[in-house]
Write a structure and sequence with these properties.
By secondary structure, the protein is an alpha+beta fold. Helix content is about 30%, strand content about 25%.
């Protein structure tokens, strides 16, 4: 893997905006085409195979958590356990997930799995692909995200209830809205009737005990870019187990287990010394060099990096009351003060491509940049 500095395209802002990418720059740059990462095919195949292995291991881990009823470790409310188990036993389908990998010195390690509400899908599937066509259309990219999304949505048409599949996120979140509308567009290309409905506008018919839209029509199929741990804490979420229509939610409730960092010690317990896993525990005792992570934190919040049993770096935030895990420190590679994290996408249980987010510290946070990649034979 190499980092190659280049000159950005002329008027690239207008180019990406024409593709519907409206959050390329906020108070800091997010989309960054002043460089790209180059991989050879052996490296791509290595990442792809690791993604396959880890996905299969994660499914084993979900079954283990359910069999041993380890829900307290995951801070999952007891009132949702039956519903979660039902979603697993009935094989409610997942659309996607994103592994976060550290790749350096010939080793690839899973840092965590964004299994419920991963973002950066649109920039990985569409924006960096069109960037590559402008840069050098003879090159390739590890990127079949778009094709696999359409194919997997098509495979779910007969699974969903008759009627529309509602796509939903919070109001006032342009990044979430862009990702949701992209997923919705892929579903429409797969022949699924869809509607958009903000999370805040999904209603509850107390008399019928069902979810309804703004026209009081039943909502039976819901894709929501909204975390399960937030849903279970909301008044809205209290109605989910009571829903007479048993609406299908995508991502399904069993993803509560995989999107939680408590899965990391479970994976290490089940697959000790696996080359793509880092030692992880519910206490810090075995690890002098480690990263302390809240089990439900997002965007690099409340992370402590400890070296030689001394705090070396820390981030702020509002997480931690739910509990922590401790993972062996495996620092991101350093490319002149740029630290890349590889996001490897699983779509329809298949590896589908990568997107790279680059930070100026060892913690990838909400100030990280998205940097495109290509395969250089």
């Amino acid at each position: 893997m190499q980092r190659i500095p280049i000159t950005p395209r002329n008027k690239w802002q207008q180019t990406v905006e024409q593709l519907g990418f409206g959050f390329h720059t906020t108070n800091v740059p997010y989309w960054d085409e002043s460089a790209y990462y180059a991989f050879n095919m052996d490296e791509i195949l290595f990442i792809e195979e690791a993604t396959v292995q880890l996905w299969e291991m994660c499914l084993v881990a979900v079954q283990y958590v359910i069999d041993h009823r380890l829900y307290p470790l995951f801070h999952i409310p007891s009132s949702f356990v039956s519903y979660l188990e039902k979603s697993w036993n009935e094989e409610h389908p997942s659309i996607y997930g994103r592994f976060d990998f550290c790749y350096r010195d010939g080793q690839l390690k899973m840092l965590e799995f964004n299994a419920d509400t991963p973002t950066s899908l649109y920039e990985a599937g569409i924006i960096q692909w069109f960037w590559l066509q402008d840069l050098d259309s003879s090159k390739d990219q590890f990127n079949s995200i778009h094709e696999k999304l359409i194919a997997h949505w098509a495979s779910l048409r007969d699974y969903l209830y008759p009627g529309s599949l509602y796509f939903s996120c919070l109001k006032g979140t342009l990044e979430d809205l862009t990702n949701v509308e992209y997923l919705r567009d892929c579903a429409m290309q797969a022949g699924i009737p869809t509607r958009f409905l903000f999370i805040e506008d999904i209603g509850w018919d107390q008399q019928q005990q069902i979810f309804v839209d703004e026209q009081r029509q039943p909502v039976k199929n819901i894709f929501k870019l909204y975390p399960w741990e937030w849903l279970t804490a909301d008044e809205f979420g209290e109605n989910i187990p009571a829903d007479k229509n048993a609406a299908f939610f995508i991502e399904p409730a069993w993803k509560m287990i995989l999107s939680n960092k408590a899965i990391l010690p479970i994976l290490w317990q089940l697959f000790p010394d696996h080359p793509h896993l880092l030692p992880a525990f519910f206490t810090s005792a075995p690890l002098a060099d480690h990263v302390k992570k809240p089990i439900l934190s997002r965007e690099g919040a409340n992370i402590d990096i400890v070296v030689d049993n001394k705090l070396a770096y820390s981030t702020g935030g509002e997480y931690g009351e739910e509990g922590y895990i401790y993972q062996q420190l495996f620092p991101l590679p350093d490319f002149g003060g740029n630290y890349p994290l590889i996001g490897s996408w699983v779509i329809g249980q298949q590896p589908a491509g990568i997107g790279i987010r680059e930070a100026s510290t060892l913690v990838t946070d909400n100030l990280s940049r998205f940097v495109p990649h290509l395969i250089d034979q």
